[in-house]
Design a protein that fits this description.
The protein is an alpha/beta fold. Helix content is 30%, strand content 19%. A hairpin with a 4-residue loop joins strand 7 and strand 8.
Amino acid sequence: MLEPFLTHEGTAAVLMRDNVDTDQIIPSREMKTVSQQGLGEGLFAAERYLDPAARRVDPDFVLNRPEQVGSTILISGENFGCGSSREHAVWALKEYGIRAVIAKSFGEIFHGNCIRNGVLPVTLAPAQVDQLAAIEAPVRISINLEDQILYCSALPDWSQRFEIGEFARRLLTEGLDPITLTLTEMDRIEAFQARDAEARPWVYAND
């Protein structure tokens, strides 16, 4: 069961560039575990560290700046999460503490991986993203997923509605991944199996 995403308020880090691919988000050399744990340290490792092997921090990288400590939202450009289908990219973002990514567009597979892992991908018009990115750090953003609206404390009269599919919204607001979604239908699954066992008992002979 994932943490449900209903509302969230947090500091946003701005990484304003296009085509940030999954190898930039989590380089392949950082994927040394078979679980979802232990990947947060490798997030943006090639840029976050002057020496990735020694974990010597680059103070100029956005996530390392003092005003960005504890950032839970990432703002970026076009085609964020493009490249390979590695789910590790989302796992790394999530373990670091990123709850939402706001971008002009997303790589399709990455977008789906976000939803299945409890990270909200928010697509906004380029002008809206540029407006947020231009605010002097730190940028504080509030997200209401139930109403599908974004707010920014630095822009008191600003709010922006975003679109997300109803199925994706259900997964996020209820904290469901594909397995827990299936388990919500367990009564129907068990009823089907009971009927099927009566109709085709030979199928279940070895149970």
